[in-house]
Design brief:
Length: 380
Amino acid sequence: MTIPFNRPYLVGRELDNIAKAHANGHLSGDGAFTRSCHAWLEQRTGTRKALLTHSCTAALEMAAILLDLQPGDEVIMPSFTFVSTANAFVLRGAIPVFVDIRPDTLNIDESLIEQAITPGTRAICVVHYAGVACEMDTIMAIAAKHGLKVIEDAAQGIFSTYKGRALGSIGNLAALSFHETKNVISGEGGALLVNDPALVERAEIIREKGTNRSKFFRGQVDKYTWVDIGSSYLPSELIAAFLAAQFEAADAITARRLAIWDRYHDWAAPLESGGLLRRPTVPVDCIHNAHMYYLLLGDLAGRTRFIEAMKASGIGVVFHYIPLHSSPAGQRYGRTHGVLHHTDATSDRLVRLPLWVGLEDHQDHVMQVAQDILGQSPEP
Ligand SMILES: *Cc1c(COP(=O)(O)O)cnc(C)c1O
């Protein structure tokens, strides 16, 4: 039996919806399914304006354009993240300034942000790792004090909350992902959440190739024209139709993922007490969405042994980010603030376990095999 690390879940109505989009005679972007996805996201997150995009990456690129970043401007962010967090800003000529993460949540260490601010700093881009919120009150206060914008990379954060507020609804702008590895999916897909009302109109323009096409379709202008820079960031109705079906089942998906997460967490408790590993930390004022279940093992050698042995048993487990500050492009385009000790250590020690809807039937097996491997002492 092989158990993959991820298996994209179909709720059932995706293909019906795609057939409906075709019957509607509207396959390009911003048709009825896209509008219903926007309304759903706005209602569920409380954001001012939600706009579907091709990916979270595309939404982050839109955010970087919206902030009018100039070459040499600095954006503070963690190094322990996906490349798109940094790439979106580097494409504008901006410089990612990497700061260390907290050893508990693995999110940006808010206590290091203020020291990293220079006269060139324009924004802070936070990443809610594993769908667990960053310390947003502190981060928003620092941003307000220094006149900085905050972008939330909430790729992993749909349905998670911080002090009762949806992730993605707190910063000036936020990006969600519906990539097939995320909780709610459309293959490739994402959304920009615009919380700052002053940025809504320009966000629509940037998404429509720099034209005021959205205003034209609402009858607010009598012809549409090129008014700003932009690109094609809107997905087809086929993607929105698929996503709309997933949205209908999103609560059920989250509930099933949470049940799997909770079982892993209970199972790993005695292993943690026994000093074999460390479990994820979720602060009391954060509700997470069971995006990921990870373990922090003792060291790189132990993690490598674990991954190899799990693979040999047919179970897909994977490590996560190579820190951006140690990657070739990160070194060329970014700089670090201080020593990124927790980033490096986490990158070496973290392993993610399979977590997908349908894993319920195999989870006992995964835990048994993992426990057997973890219980074996390393070869001398
Ligand atoms: C998945 C992910 C992205 C990229 O999402 P895409 O939709 O594939 O572009 C960006 N940032 C983080 C933190 C992610 O986990």
